[in-house]
Write a structure and sequence with these properties.
Chain E: Keywords: Cell membrane, Membrane, Transmembrane, Transmembrane helix, Transport. The complex is a heterononamer. Chain D is mainly α. Chain D is built from 5 helices and no strands. In chain H, helix 1 runs antiparallel to helix 2, helix 4 packs antiparallel against helix 8 and helix 6 packs antiparallel against helix 8. In chain H, strands 1-3-2 form a 3-stranded antiparallel β-sheet.
């Protein structure tokens, strides 16, 4: 019962994912790329970096990278906290 | 052989590898085997990024998937148990 | 310095979080440090609110030459990440900072017997950072990043008591739910990026059309955020997480849940508001989800024996009111006469209910934490007669219970009244459900109060005393806020809630980055 | 107890991997890679040290390494570089680029062989993120290793 | 027969052989079999990556192959260390 | 001319890689498979990289473009790293297999029998 | 600052409400104070009279939380049976519910209904 | 002392990685400075891990011999090994066994070199090495009557080279 | 290959991988398998975003020692930057999940998710 219902939900969700995948614009031809063109053209003078990806990661979208570093920091704190010694409080 | 055909053949091969390794990761009863399949999945994913001209992402996936994720999984399995639950 | 306020809102708690692990074993110092940092953020958020309410939408572009340089010269697309702070964001930001401060204050005593506190406080501040980033940002991918920060920090905190198996169980459930939801959000963001080549919320909202791919993206975003904010029938993680988390984290975790609700509103009101035809459909979905949420939540709460779990189900049920109120407003968004007649008030009720609910539910969960602190159990069947031992806790609990049940003159009443009256205009059946829910809420809190606080004093609780001072201060502050907001609802409504509602309704203002372009 | 082969090879390869990681971190603005990738490679090198030694040796090796402080240092450095932009510009503004400070030389436009002394704040951020990532990932692997029970872990 | 097309053909053949190796990863009766297949797969893929870098004439992207060449054996060592005591070889 | 040289080198490399995969598929037990995988893949990759190095020298000679130096040296580094690491991995996994109790198929002699006091 | 909260069909004034509350409180107290003051503390009067049976212990007098609203829950037994069957606590179900609801919502949004 | 070894080794690796970047003998000045800084840091960090003696590890004679070995005898043996494996793969004629040899090497480095060479060359790979330096080798085709081989019978001239290079 | 359904082959692969990931999360009983499912989801979404930014015949967006014809024809950099962030997040999530799994095994003695449900009702 649970399995059948779950399978139904799963399949109906996947149909929409497939529909989205098929009806996207064709692979390899991005329609609007103003933002990325700007990055490619201006990265060398504004960020003075040859690697456009790095200049996007650390300059144009540097705030995302701060968030990424924070995520890693959070996860490390979480892992260390979850696996710490119990501190004598056993229940 | 021009670049276009070459690219699509690569895409098909990588697609086979991706789907095959992920199905393997799901189907294997032994967790170590599943983790090895995940390493192959990561390798195929990295090759896909590489072929799609994203070397930054490919290096990230390689650095994480080749050593660290496998190490983490194995240490976690070592701390728990490696047999899948009998269904 | 005023124009840098949005950046400081993130930078200050991040600084606190990054320095917290350096305190190693000095637990007192790190908790005081956290209280100071969260206090500073409260002040900053109030300053920000003053700026925004008087000066309109505030835009802060990261990495540009000056904070308001949205579009580079000669370009018509925004290229950098920006914060776009309107009244709704500020409203949520105030809730977040206030509740983090209260949580830090409460945690000072509540977890003092545990180890690993430097990481606990770091995660508390990181949770605050995640919420603040979510509510302030004007960039879709940035929203995803901060959603993940809030989710990971929250789930790590849920698993804080690692000597309990249940805590780890709840933690992995929460993490599973939040990571799957975030991944689907990322997928939807990817779809939108593929369509429009940009990630700025306002820019996408200006260009969004009505093809199938966009609707799938909207469906994914809607469902993911609905799951993260605990709408029935995707609410199962809420009681698990709220029950196992230390009571000091409950207030920020509540705000984290409602930050997802905020994101849901932002997506339906701002991102897809230009789609005229189908917004009523979204509104109806939201209202029906709201009704289901409030009814199923409250009926499940009636049969619970664990006090925190009971309150968690009430949290689900109260989320339904917000969904109902804002859903009613969304249904009539493109109908100006109805919007002026009752839509705006309905949304005001829903939004006002967010802060009201955060305040009194935090108060209630904190009293439950206080009960756990002195008795060591959360099972209602084992409690009894604690009113004489812990008078302040009992009074705080009474205030909170009265507020959540919508008794006048506490704050729950004002927002519930608005919701009743406006949802009656849309469909009377919705109101009936809302009122039944309110009655059942009162009933279940009578049960808690009777079994935990009333009755003869039991022998096993002979030596219990009132909880330490920081906890009492935290609870008293919240109880006072309950009464204050109940007596002067107009204060909050005029200063914060109606600007927030207007910010949601006037999406054209948001789409033009506050008139900058 | 590991075998002679593994021990000797680790001795030669560990510095190699660490240098390779540093290379990726430092050349983040020129070649593919950057803070996170290099940090991950660096952490893999340290994970190699963890796997090639037994528990006592690992404890001894990592006893004096201030992983937690390094992580906080990296994160705070990122924040500090970001806050440099508050002096007249906005948060995270690339203030060092084209300013003739260290890493501040301008980059010629178009295709070039790549000059190390460019990048502005990007290089600093790469280094800080790399520090942070290597400390963080290593401490994750290390904590998973250290909670292992004795009898389950032998070579 | 330009050199590029030679390299392309070689790369496709390498991937085909990698696919064959993956068969062993899928059917391999014991865990060491799968690990051996993983090792061979990684080596082959590193070679193929070098070829792709030469085909597109981009010097810098060969670093990815370097990363794989260096790091692949760490995973092998971890798995080997796991298998030593476990007696799951026959599983 | 250069095409023929490249074709020979690549053919050797690809051939040995294919041989490795066939050997991995055909051999009866894990130890013999390690023979196939380690030796043949390393040797095949050496020849493939040799081809790229030859090609990069060929392209470098006319106008001394620095990027072909990088391609050549990094390709060579790939193979050096592989030669350094591959035998160790093979040794570790073979030892682990023997220690976890897999006996060699059809062994005429097994000196390690009883060595690990199983 | 006005106390009046205007709603679509009326208004709400907490101050007015408080005044009425105090008024009715005074009235109630007046009625209460006219009662017969025969109750005295610290006498036999405070003991409950249970037909001569000994007084039960305090734990027994305490009303357990599980016993409150027993009738209500009993009346809605069928409803609760379904509801508690849904709350399995299995983390896979959480995701499956998400998938199902996502499919339904997307279906409605695309225009199926 | 060991600091110098690890420093030099790190520097060499870094310089190989960045070759071709500039005009000062293939390297640009910035790369050289960065290389020295990084080599100092890594060398300091790994001074206890890489406990090689300087005069042993950086003996030019050893390196020249090693290069000759790698290009000449080793490569030849490897080619032979591969043809051998190819033959086995195609025909399927195998007669495997695990044999023990005692090459009598004393240093860890020489043992490792020999073991790795054995792994990559004819029909053999090292399974186990014990404290006395005895190698347990899986031999894919044990000739009849050679179940207790001498090192020369198993792998020809490799032990001689290993002794010459690393002892 | 133009014109057929295979022009969107990477996207279809992404959808299939998403399906496999959701299947793993929804129907497998082992906790580590569930974590593996989440990782498959991460990989699928990452691949989707990178595939969005590909331009036919483009070169990697790096100017260092690039071939001369690369200057005007680079793939879009933004999706790659997004994917980098997403990969880090994936690692973080997996690590935390594994830590929780270890804790759960320590207290429950099993990794079967149908037995890990003390919290229900």
């Amino acid at each position: 019962m649970r399995r059948a219902l779950g399978l139904f939900a799963f399949l109906s969700f996947i149909i929409f994912l497939l529909a989205a995948a098929i009806s996207l614009r064709p692979f390899g031809e991005p329609p609007h790329a103003e933002m990325d063109t700007y990055f490619i053209e201006h990265a060398q003078e504004e960020a003075s970096a040859n690697n456009v990806v790095t200049s996007v990661v650390f300059d144009y979208r540097g705030f995302d990278t701060l968030g990424e570093a924070t995520v890693l920091f959070t996860a490390v704190s979480g892992v260390l906290m979850a696996l710490r010694h119990y501190g004598g409080k056993e229940k | 052989m021009n670049f276009e055909n070459f690219f699509w053949i690569l895409q098909i091969l990588i697609a086979i590898a991706l789907i095959g390794s992920s199905i393997a990761a799901i189907r294997f009863k032994n967790l170590i085997a599943a983790v090895i399949a995940m390493a192959v999945f990561s390798l195929a994913l990295s090759v896909e990024f590489y072929v799609l001209q994203a070397p930054d992402v490919a290096i990230a996936e390689a650095g994480v998937g080749a050593g660290l994720t496998t190490a983490m999984y194995l240490l976690a399995i070592k701390n728990t148990t490696d047999e899948e639950v009998i269904e | 310095m005023m124009e840098h306020l949005p950046a400081l809102m993130i930078a200050v708690p991040l600084f606190g979080a990054f320095t917290a692990p350096l305190f190693k074993k000095h637990y007192r110092e790190v908790s005081i440090w956290t209280i100071i940092i969260t206090g500073i953020t409260v002040v900053l958020s109030l300053l920000l609110a003053k700026e925004v309410v008087t000066g309109g939408i505030m835009v802060y572009v990261f990495g540009a030459d000056k904070p308001t340089l949205v579009l580079p010269s000669g370009y018509s697309v925004p290229i950098r990440i920006m914060f776009e702070v309107d009244a709704m964001s500020v409203f949520m930001a105030i809730s977040a900072t206030l509740m983090s401060f209260i949580g830090a204050l409460y945690s000072y005593s509540h977890v003092e017997r545990e180890t690993g506190l430097e990481k606990y406080y770091a995660l508390l501040m990181l949770l605050e950072v995640g919420i603040l980033g979510m509510v302030l940002t004007g960039d879709l991918f940035n929203l995803f990043v901060f959603l993940e920060i809030a989710g990971i920090a929250g789930s790590a905190l849920v698993g804080f008591r690692n000597y309990r198996g249940e805590a780890s169980e709840a933690g992995i459930k929460y993490l599973m739910v939040s990571s799957v939801a975030s991944l689907m959000v990322l997928f939807a963001v990817g779809i939108l990026y593929g369509q429009y080549g940009n990630l700025n919320l306002a820019y996408i909202a200006k260009n969004v059309s009505f093809n199938m791919v966009d609707m799938i993206a909207l469906g994914l975003l809607f469902t993911s955020f609905a799951m993260k904010c605990g709408a029935v029938p995707m609410h199962y993680w809420v009681p698990d997480a709220y029950t196992e988390v230390p009571a000091g984290i409950n207030p920020p975790l509540l705000v984290a849940t409602y930050a997802s609700l905020y994101a849901l509103f932002r997506v339906s009101f701002t991102l897809f508001a230009n789609v005229v035809i189908d917004l009523a459909r979204v509104g109806w979905i939201m209202s029906i989800l709201g009704v289901l949420t409030m009814f199923i939540g409250v009926t499940m709460a009636l049969v619970q024996k664990d006090v925190k779990r009971l309150m968690s189900y009430h949290a689900i049920s109260q989320t339904g009111y917000m969904l109902l109120g804002v859903g009613v407003g969304l249904t009539v968004l493109h109908d100006p006469s109805k919007l002026a007649e009752f839509g705006r008030d309905a949304m005001a009720g829903g939004v006002f209910h967010i802060i009201n609910h955060i305040i009194y539910k935090s108060l209630l969960l904190m009293t439950a934490g206080a009960l756990f602190y002195v008795t060591g159990t959360r099972n209602l069947n084992e409690m009894g007669g604690l009113a004489r031992k812990m008078p302040i806790t009992a009074i705080s609990f009474m205030v909170g219970a009265a507020a959540i049940s919508g008794l006048p003159p506490f704050n729950g009443f004002a927002s519930k009244l608005l919701i009743y009256e406006t949802s009656y205009r849309l469909n009377p059946l919705l109101t009936v459900f809302a009122m039944v829910t309110s009655v059942l809420t009162l009933a279940s809190f009578v049960k808690v109060f009777a079994s935990a606080f009333l009755g003869p004093p039991l022998e096993k609780f002979e030596n219990t005393r009132e909880v330490p001072k920081p906890m009492i201060i935290a609870m008293v502050i919240l109880a006072a806020l309950c009464i204050l907001f109940g007596l002067f609802p107009n204060l909050v409504l005029d200063k914060l809630v109606y600007p927030a509602v207007d910010a949601l309704i006037n999406f054209a203002q948001y789409h033009s980055w506050g008139g900058l372009a | 107890m590991t075998t002679t082969i593994i021990r000797t090879t680790t001795k030669i390869l560990a510095p190699l991997i660490l240098v390779f990681g540093s290379y990726i971190i430092l050349h983040g603005h020129l070649t593919p890679g950057g803070g996170f990738q290099g940090g991950a490679v660096f952490a893999s090198g340290l994970a190699l040290l963890i796997v090639a030694n037994n528990k006592e040796k690992v404890k001894e090796l990592f006893d004096k390494v201030p992983l937690s402080q390094l992580e906080s240092l990296g994160a705070l450095g990122f924040l500090g570089i970001g806050a440099l932009g508050l002096m007249g510009y906005t948060f995270l503004k690339n203030v060092i680029a084209n300013s003739d400070f260290l890493f501040g030389a301008p980059t010629p436009k178009g295709i070039n062989p790549g000059y190390l002394n460019t990048g502005g704040t990007l290089s600093y951020l790469n280094i800080f993120v790399g520090t942070k990532v290597l400390a963080g990932l290593t401490s994750i692997v290390l904590i998973f290793f250290l909670i292992l029970r004795r009898e389950r872990d032998e070579w | 027969m330009t050199p590029e097309s030679l390299f392309m053909g070689a790369m496709i053949l390498l991937f085909l052989s990698a696919t064959l190796t993956m068969m062993r990863m899928l059917i391999g009766p014991t865990i060491p079999d799968r690990v051996v297949a993983l090792d061979a797969l990684t080596t082959t893929t590193a070679g193929a990556m070098v070829l792709y870098g030469v085909i597109t004439e981009q010097a810098v992207i060969i670093d990815v192959a370097l990363v794989y060449a260096v790091l692949s054996y760490i995973a092998t060592l971890y798995i080997a260390r796991y298998l030593v005591k476990k007696r799951v070889g026959l599983a | 001319m250069i095409e023929a040289l490249l074709a020979i080198l690549l053919a050797i490399g690809v051939g040995f890689n294919l041989l490795a995969s066939i050997g991995i598929l055909r051999f009866p037990d894990v130890y013999t498979r390690i023979h196939a995988s380690t030796k043949c893949t390393t040797f095949g990759t050496i020849f493939i990289v040799l081809a790229t190095v030859v090609y990069s020298i060929y392209r470098w000679l006319p106008n001394h473009d620095a990027r072909w130096i990088t391609i050549g040296i990094h390709s060579a580094l790939v193979v050096i790293f592989l030669v350094l690491t591959n035998p160790v991995g093979a040794h570790a996994i073979g030892r682990a297999a023997r220690k976890s109790g897999i006996r060699p198929y059809g062994a005429v002699i097994d000196e390690l029998e009883g060595y690990y006091e199983l | 600052m006005s106390f009046t909260l205007t709603t679509p069909s009326g208004f709400w004034n907490p101050l007015l409400w408080l005044i009425f509350l105090v008024l009715f409180g005074i009235i109630a107290y007046l009625i209460y104070s006219r009662g017969n003051p025969s109750y005295k503390k610290n006498t036999e009067q405070i003991k409950p009279y249970l037909s001569g049976n000994p007084e039960p212990t305090k734990e027994k007098v305490q009303v357990k939380a599980g016993d409150i609203y027993w009738g209500f829950i009993e009346a809605l037994k069928e409803y609760y049976k379904v509801l508690q069957a849904i709350h399995t606590g299995d983390m896979r179900d959480y995701i499956l519910w998400y998938l199902g609801i996502g499919a339904i919502i997307t279906f409605i949004l695309i225009g199926g209904v | 002392m060991s600091l110098t070894t690890s420093f030099l080794w790190s520097l060499i690796v870094y310089l190989i990685l960045t070759a071709g970047s500039g005009s000062v003998l293939l390297w640009s000045p910035a790369e050289l400075v960065a290389g020295i800084v990084i080599a100092a840091l890594i060398g300091y960090a790994t001074r206890n891990i890489m406990d090689e003696r300087l005069d042993y590890f950086f003996n030019p004679k050893r390196w020249v011999l090693f290069l000759i070995y790698a290009v000449g005898p080793f490569f030849y043996a490897m080619a032979k090994a591969n043809l051998d494996v190819a033959y086995r793969v195609i025909t399927g004629k195998i007669r495997p066994g695990i044999v023990k040899i005692s090459p009598g090497l004393t240093r860890d480095e020489s043992r490792t070199l020999l073991a790795n060479s054995i792994t990559l060359t004819p029909g053999t790979f090292t399974l186990e090495i014990d404290d006395e330096g005895n190698l347990y080798v899986h031999w894919i085709n044990v000739p009849p009557g050679k179940e207790k081989p001498t090192p020369e019978e198993l792998c020809g001239y490799l032990p001689k080279w290993a002794r010459r290079i690393a002892e | 290959m133009n014109g057929s359904i295979f022009v969107n082959l990477p996207f279809i692969v992404v959808a299939v991988l998403l399906a496999l990931g959701f299947y793993t999360i929804g129907f497998k009983r082992n906790l580590i398998k569930v974590v593996i499912g989440v990782e498959i989801l991460e990989g699928a979404v990452n691949m989707f975003i990178v595939a969005l930014g590909y331009v036919k015949g483009g070169y990697a967006p790096i100017y260092t020692q690039a071939p001369p014809e690369a200057a005007g024809k680079m793939v879009l950099p933004t999706p790659q930057a997004l994917t980098l962030t997403s990969i880090v997040i994936g690692v973080a999530v997996s690590a935390l999940m594994l830590a929780f799994a270890v804790n759960i095994y320590k207290h429950y003695g099993t990794l079967d998710v149908t037995k890990i449900r003390r919290l229900r009702g």
